[in-house]
Amino acid sequence: MSAELQEFNDLIEDLKSVINQPNFDKVFKSKAADVPKAKQFLIKMELKRLAQPSGRLLDLRGHVKGDPVEYEYQDKTHYLDEIGRQIFEDQTKKFGQYTVGVYEAVMNAENNNRVIHKKEQQQRLKEKNQPDKPDAIKNKTSESASKSLSGRTIEFTHYGIRTEERMNFSIAVEIQFGLGNVLKAVSSDLSVGGIKVKIPNSKPASVGQKIAIYLTGLEQEFELGLKDGIQYEIVGIDEVSDTHKYIRAKRTFKEDIATFDEFLGNFINGNKRRYKVNFDNTLEAVTVKGFEQYYLPRVTSLPVFLRHANERFLPTLALATENNRSVLGHFSDENKNLVFQQILSQKRIARLARQDSPIKQTLLYSFTHAKGGKLYFYSATSEELNAHPKLRSLFIGFGSRKDSWNVFKLQLAEANADDAHLPLSIPDTASKEIQKLNRPPSPKVQGLLKGLSYVVVFTPLKNEQSTQNYQATYQYDRTQLSLLKPFSHPKLKQYINIEVETIDYVNLRSEERYLYKTSVVVDLPDDSGQISGSSRDISTYGLQVVTDTEAPFKKGDIIVLGLPDFQKVTQKFKLDKLAYEVMAISRDKTIMNLKVYDPRGGHQGRRFFYKLIRQNINKLTPTKIESKYPGLSKALRNIFAKHSKNMAMYINKDHGKFSVNIVGKGPQPNLLHHLMRQFPPEKGKVNLYPLVKDNAVNNTYAPIINEIERTHRPREIDLFVRYRPNQDSVERSFVCYFGDQFLAHDMLHSFVDASSKKDVFLAFRLFLSKTGRPDMNFVSNEIKYIHHYAMHKAKELEGELWSIIGVVDIVDISEEVMLQIGLSSERINQQESIKRQLLSQW
């Protein structure tokens, strides 16, 4: 419509319904009597243009905020969202057919991206030409800041698993809430066992309420014989606007109407392409799984799984990642026996299980003593040390000065074997292949999980600064060391065999690597000599080398090395002075990941390893060893995801800009997440202020992401928080500092002491890792399913996952920090009691 007719928009809308009627001229003269003659002519011309029949197809996919589905009209298929459908039906009713006016009305809907963009441009132009008032500037700044603090929560294992396919199907229905209490409404989607219906917000409804629904729209086309309607139970209510909400309901199957069930199943299966399958739950599942797969393989925590057998809880399984193997190393003795059965004694398990808190946790202090070629373990929990204050100083004072000293956070969660089975979000009815993939774990895996009762998660907390703090706080008398004997673990004649599974995730290497140890000599810079070492794994284009002493190299350096043992067995290849580029190097400068440096071609090392691997492929062991129990890794991963107690934060990079707007957590309670819900910037969101204040994303997180590689161990950042309850704003509630902002130990001590005296002291260790590409293999079947029905949705989802560049594991270390600086047991217990109360609020 031209700009000069915009003022007559209401009149034109009013006349649409009579443009094709015989009495149009009479009605027009009556309603347009006050309009100038020249304008009357233009209005008539515009109405005749709008009334012209149209053959253009409407396809709103990617053009609106809603979710377009197929819509049939006179043998033509359009793609309309809910708003578009309503406008289409309203306008075709006015014109009596599909016309140019119908097309333009749908395309100019308020939720059309083009319309939204145009309005935003006009608003920006208006604001540019009008000086802002101080209040307006303040409001805009506040709104922008609020948006940057808004965080969406991904709840791990929340997959929305369905037992049957649903179809987007909009038909008229009548809902009977009670005798004489009937409401006319429209369905949104339909399955044999359930329905979703849009109703006004003003209509009372509650979860668990029984209702009867009459499928009046369907009965106009088919003889269903459902005179008493179908009974449903409301299972969920979703508010979608200020005026409407959706009720989700499931069949109670009180009626014996097998013929209708069969009819509806066949109807849905036969009309999938026409009306589109509803896959909202699959979209949600892929999103959740994608973010889980960024987080779980990178955690530093080690989950150990306890089975109940012979009236004891025994550790029999563990799930390893590339970042938690140090925990396994600490608890391995000189014969590679894992000593978890002693560390997790029956008394300790029982004490943890009895804790009156939704989060059952403690601290574990441990060190080893070598004698006569044997390794002896000492360990104590914080409760055990608090019960003997004198022994606490002795144990920590002595242990923290030993190289083997370690501190772990222990978290216990009840679990069972059923937690291992998480089917796809696609129902069995979709295909035979999906039905096969949805099967529970194999009998062998179920046997290994039989009697599963608990998961205990070990998170290593030791670092250089905390060790110095312990040494400064706790002194000891060497003559008293014999008093530590109750904390020692005697040698056992036989140890429980603990099956250690490695978590499955995408292989980010371009070629397979193989475990192989051979001697390596590396030339030092400026011909200053050589350092010796050995290979850990080999491939055609690279190898990992462990040196006996610190290597003076950095990422990007070109080094020269030789392979003396291999040279002894071949004369065909010259295996000294081989050039490699350093792709990554460990913090202690002893482990290097190397890649062939071959600018001219003909690299002797590459050619040698190509031939060696090809001729011995059946004898070499891949770095990723296949499990003896296929399916066990995934089963343990599912259990761990369901019982994860910590929170994840995801760092996004889009067009060079870093941002944080997503956090993840398991179904279990998490105190930090709970507190971040207190001041939501938007409905259903959390407030990220404690994690991103003072532009932490760009000032703290981004520089680390830019510095590290995906293969590096997580970088640690400590965040200290003074939480002040009952404040009126998030800024007043959270006083936050990163560890490097305390210039001395005394400053940290004062902050912790003051916070715990008057308010609530919280401390978190942030383990920051750089991610690689998303693990699309893990969600490939569900992505294919979405792609089949809505390619644009699948691409949007993949784009969101690809934009993630970093993941942060956030672990509560409050108790450990209070113990570091020597706070009394009474103060620590008081703080823990306050936190339990906070978890029960809101």
TrEMBL record:
Biased composition (Basic and acidic residues): 120-141
Organism lineage: Bacteria, Pseudomonadati, Pseudomonadota, Gammaproteobacteria, Alteromonadales
Tree of life domain: Bacteria
One GO molecular-function entry: cyclic-di-GMP binding
A Pfam short name: PilZ
Region listing for Disordered, in residue ranges: 120-149
Domain annotation PilZ: ranges: 162-244, 508-590
Family annotation (InterPro entries): PilZ_domain
Name under which the protein is recorded: PilZ domain-containing protein
